[in-house]
Amino acid sequence: MLNRLNLLTHHFTRTFGSARTAAPALSTPSLVLRSGPSAMTSAAQAKPIHTAACLIIGDEVLGGKTIDTNSPFLAKFCFGLGIQLKRVEVIPDDEEDIIEAVRRMSARYDFVVTSGGIGPTHDDITYQSIAKAFGLKLQLYEPAFERMKRLSRPHPMQPNFDWNTPSPGLTAKLRMVELPFDPAIPAEQQGLFVADDMWVPVAVVNGNVHILPGVPRLFERLLLNLKPHLVPRLSDPEGKGTFRFMFSTPLPESAVAPYLTELAAKVEPRGVKVGSYPRWGKKRNTVTLVGADKAFLESLVPEVEVGVQGKRVAKEDELDPPSDSEHIYSQ
Does residue 30 contact residue 106 with C-beta atoms inside 8 Å? Predict the structure, then answer.
């Protein structure tokens, strides 16, 4: 395989695991880069997953061209596994911004997911930026390249494309399978294939940064298939997740505020969060209890129903009268 790649073009990177010495000098990020090649990575890999962060990368999101649906999907995914999603950020396709954000998130959170910037064009700089963030180099991940050749279909506008012939199109495709590589970590732990019919790998950097594409269809499928890799590291390996109990109340928020303040102080030691959400234009508002102990949440239901003069519901609009949308009530 290496011989064939060398014939394609002299500047193609070598495969994962091969020696590569030519690289620009990189500044060392404080508190993030390891003192040895694998110290930080090994620690991050063994660390249980309690918290998560999401980094949405793309000028198109900040410019209003594209609506981000990946972070809400990740939020539901984490909620279902009992992972606390602590932060979501949207940043441009800018190397300095990516480096700063991914270093900070990797240092503070157990499970970091990035979305976007791993395509074939000049502005897709996520791989190279994250590699620089952790003092790594980009290298061709041969298994991904082989899967790409086997699973991707020729584009009708590239009828003469040849995998064995050097071309700008081939160079662009290779950008999508050149991943940040840590020589101290087995290659298969740095490029995860989670679906048999997809060539796109989930690149894992510094043990906890997971690089995903921005295309929602791909992002969602890869994330869902990543679950078996995450469950063993959860604080709750059985994957019971987090539970949300909703209550519909006819009272305005100002009326339930005193009771909810007392309730929140009482249940906080048990890991339960109390929320209150106005529903503008509706007759009923929503109160929530969120926690991992389902039995304890169940025990609170009678008290909360009395405290908010409402009922536990499965959907926010469950008790709405037909004419509810015609009225607006002060909070």
Answer: no
Handedness of CA 36, 105, 133, 17 (dihedral sign): positive
Output the domain CATH number for residue 315. Answer: 3.30.70
Which amino acid, 205? Answer: V
pLDDT digits 0-9 by tens, 65-105 = 999 999 999 999 999 999 999 999 999 999 999 999 999 99
Q: Cα(308)–Cα(177) distance, rounded to whole angstroms? A: 55
Domain containing residue 264: 243-326
Q: Indicate the residue type of 315.
A: K
Report whether 220 contacts 68 (CB < 8 A). no
C-alpha distance from residue 139 to each of 117, 143, 163, 218 (Å): 17, 12, 18, 23
321: exposed, middle or buried (C-beta count within 10 Å: 0-12, 13-18, 19+)?
exposed
Structure pTM? 0.78
CB 237 within 8 A of CB 53: no
What is the per-residue pLDDT across 201-244, written as a single tens digit (0 to 9) for each?
A: 999 999 999 999 999 999 999 999 999 999 999 876 665 678 99
Pick from 204, 233, 262: which residue ends a domain? Answer: 233
Where among 233, 260, 280 does a domain terminate?
Answer: 233
